[in-house]
Amino acid sequence: MDIAIRNNQNPLLKPSTIKPSMEGMKIECLLNPGVFVFEGKTWLLLRVAEMPQQIEGTIQVPVYNEAGKIEILTFHKSDPELNFADPRVITYKGKDYLTTLSHLRLVCSDNGVDFYEPEGYSPIFGADKLEAYGIEDCRVVKIENAFHLTYTQVSSFGVGVGHIETEDWKTFKRHGMIFPPHNKDCAIFEEKINGKYYALHRPSSPQLGGNYIWLAESPDLIHWGKHTCIATSRKGMWDSARVGAGAAPIKTEHGWLEIYHGANEQHRYCLGALLLDLHNPSKVLARSETPIMEPMAEYELKGFFGNVIFTNGHTVDGDTLKLYYGASDEVICLAELSIKEILSTLKF
């Protein structure tokens, strides 16, 4: 049962809202923002997916080269070794390439609805060979005085989780890859539990196992261990193919509330919730039987990759969860949900 109240100004941000990072590129999609409050404003750390202006009969693919500059690769559609059936990725001679190159871009708002790009804040681009195909889907959590960014690093080596730290959003400390391939959807808890940091993450296994949510602990936010699987996909249900964490879990008197995404074999992405024990977050107390939010609006059903709702950022105001999300892998939207109502829908 969808219990979300969508903002009547949705979508808040479209590809046409933001300027490309360089001449010759166009913004294809805005996706899945990290969310935080800074200097009294609501900020979104957008994933901006760009591609080169296309030439008829070819597919132009952007990558970062070893010098950290964008290089354009050209593939001819007539080549029998080229598979371009999926708009998100092409395969050539057994090697995959993303059709877009993603970076992270800051926007802010005084009211949480009307966003603009502030002056003096630079985009965050891929920085090394582990980010040659871009950086994606950043979660942001504030712990003490620092903001910690966990994001997807994409390259020919695979997909892993990177970690960046900042206090002012102008200077950044890169900690490198903290979860190796294949891994993504990393959300760090906002406070220590029993003296240790905890994070949710999503390793994937194509042979045994699957796309499941795992928990890890750390003494320093860099070195992670004691990995435990806490939530799997469920056959025949709305989250039968894959599940992954959203933003940092929300602390409630009943437990840690985690909003997560789930998808079925038809790649229909919905949102549900997990409730984790306050003192032992590896213990799942309750879980959504049906989605709390699912693709319904036209902008969620149709787009670059339709039938998708994906979140990795929110703010909390009392009982109100302000959920920012990517719709159809193309636009940024806002919905509000009651935390009490979410809890009431869970099956213990």
Automatic annotation (TrEMBL):
Transmembrane segments: none annotated. Pfam families: Glyco_hydro_130 (PF04041). Coiled coil: none annotated. Keywords: Glycosidase, Glycosyltransferase, Hydrolase, Transferase. One of its GO terms (molecular function) is glycosyltransferase activity. It comes from the Bacteria. Belongs to the glycosyl hydrolase 130 family. PANTHER family: GLYCOSIDASE. This is Glycosidase.
